[in-house]
Amino acid sequence: MAVINTQIRLASRPAGFPDASNFRIERAPVPELKDGEVLVQNHVLSLDPYMRGRMNEARSYAAPVALGDVMIGGTAGEVIASKNPAFAVGDKVVGSFGWQEYGVSDGQGLKKVDGKLPLSVYLGAVGMPGVTAYIGLYDIGEPKEGETVVVSAAAGAVGSVVGQLAKLRGCRAVGIAGGKEKCDYVVRDLGFDACVDYRSSSFVDELRAATPNGVDVNFENVGGPVMDAVLSQLNTFGRVPLCGLVSQYNATEPYPLPNVAALLWKRIKLQGFIVSDRMDRWPQALADLSAWVAEGKIRYHETIAHGIEGAPEAFFGMLRGKNLGKQIVKLV
Ligand SMILES: NC(=O)c1ccc[n+]([C@@H]2O[C@H](COP(=O)([O-])OP(=O)(O)OC[C@H]3O[C@@H](n4cnc5c(N)ncnc54)[C@H](OP(=O)(O)O)[C@@H]3O)[C@@H](O)[C@H]2O)c1
Question: What is the rounded CA–CA span in Å between residue 211 and residue 316?
Answer without folding.
Answer: 32
